[in-house]
Amino acid sequence: MIGKLTLLFVFLAALSMVNAFPYHHFTKRAAKFGQCPPPFQPPPITAVISDVSISPDPPKAGSELKVTGSATTNVDITKDDFFGFVILDITSPATPVPVFAGKPVDICKKTTCPTKTFNFNEVYDLSSLKSLPATYIVGVAIGPITNDTSLVLACGEATFP
C-alpha cells in the first residue's frame, strides 16, 4: 500500500513540474501580416501583402532579419516601383516613429516589368539597433519612392509583440 502511495506521490509531483514548465518560451510566434491602416488606401486600390515570413520571428535587435514572401498587385508594377521594408515604433500610436528602414529594392532589376507579382527574399542588417521598442510594426510595401501613400500598390504589416 505504501508503495502505491509513493508511486502516486511521485506521479503527481512529476505532473506538477511538467505543468509548471514555461512552454510559451518555445512556441514560435508566426507573424501575421495584414492590411495597412490609413493613410494607405484600402483594398482593392492597395493590395494586401499577407504572404510574408520573417526570420527570426520576432525580429531581434543586433542581428540579421530575413524577409521572404510574395505580393500580387492590382495594377502593373513598373520601373518606378520599389519594394520597401520598415520597422516603426508605435509605443505612442498617434505618431509612429521609424526605427529602421531598409534600402529600397528596385523590383524591375529582379524581375521583368511590367508585372503584377513579385517574390521577395531580402536580408536586412539590424546590427545598428541596440533594442526594439515595446510595441512596433514591421511593414512591407510596393510602390514609388514618395510620401504620397495613395500611390502605394501593395502594403502589409505585422504588429509586435
From TrEMBL:
Record InterPro entries: Ig_E-set, ML_dom
A Pfam family annotated for this UniProt entry: E1_DerP2_DerF2
Domain of life: Eukaryota
Classification via SUPFAM superfamilies: E set domains (SSF81296)
Keywords from the UniProt entry: Signal
Domain MD-2-related lipid-recognition intervals: 46-158
Signal sequence bounds: 1-20
Name of the protein described by the UniProt record: Phosphatidylglycerol/phosphatidylinositol transfer protein
Organism of provenance: Cetraspora pellucida
